[in-house]
Amino acid sequence: MTPTASTPDPRDTRLGRLATPVYWYLVVAAGFLLAAAPGLVASALVAPVVSNVPLFALCAVPYGPAFSAALYALRDGTRGEEQNPWPRYWRGWRLNVIDVLWVWVPVLAIGALIGIGIAFGPAVGVASVFIVISWIVLLFVALWTVFAIIIASLFSFRARDIFRLSLYYMAGRPLATLGFASLLVLAVAVVFFASGWALALLASAFAGLALFTARPVTRDIRERFIAPDEADARAPESPDAPEAPED
């Protein structure tokens, strides 16, 4: 039986408005697990010892594009106008994978080197002050990475512009920086008290929190750096709209 014109849209009901974002987050979580599966499976086979830090960094390569696709899919996607989070997730992965890897792979390499230095520094006589500095640098790199991945996921900028904008907003939006630092602490706590798999299951929730925290940043980027008549290659599309070309 086909619905009549007077039949209310289930999405407009209170239950529908509650169920729609839950559905989106569950589907995006499934997309993340599938996109990150090579790294998740490989990391489970690596012994959790400090000497294997470079291997864990290599296993983490798929995580960046997978999280980027989650950011893309969840941007304005849970309001009910569209009911297809699965294709949107994979469109975001396809659009963002190259730009995000340009950010993510060097960061993993730097993080692995810093992590090895922190782990083995005391054993080889490195002064405590340099260990503290290494932790500060690691935190700085992690925060910069969050800004860079969000910008690369939602906008089409050149790599050097992503680098500059990330540094600019780290300093210019201290509340956003503090919010991202809190999310990093929460992620570390999930891994410490549960496991990396628990963090992977919560990836879509962390993506939603990151988008909420980044709203002042993304709003300012659109107002200051995106021309009103310029098509954004990262903008979500309607089901019937043609794909926007990348820059």
From TrEMBL:
Highest taxon listed in the record's lineage: Bacteria
Keywords of this entry: Membrane, Transmembrane, Transmembrane helix
Membrane-spanning parts: 22-47, 53-74, 95-120, 126-155, 167-191
Basic and acidic residues bias locations: 228-237
Chain residue ranges for the region called Disordered: 228-247
Name by which UniProt lists this protein: Putative membrane protein YesL
Taxonomic source organism: Microbacterium immunditiarum
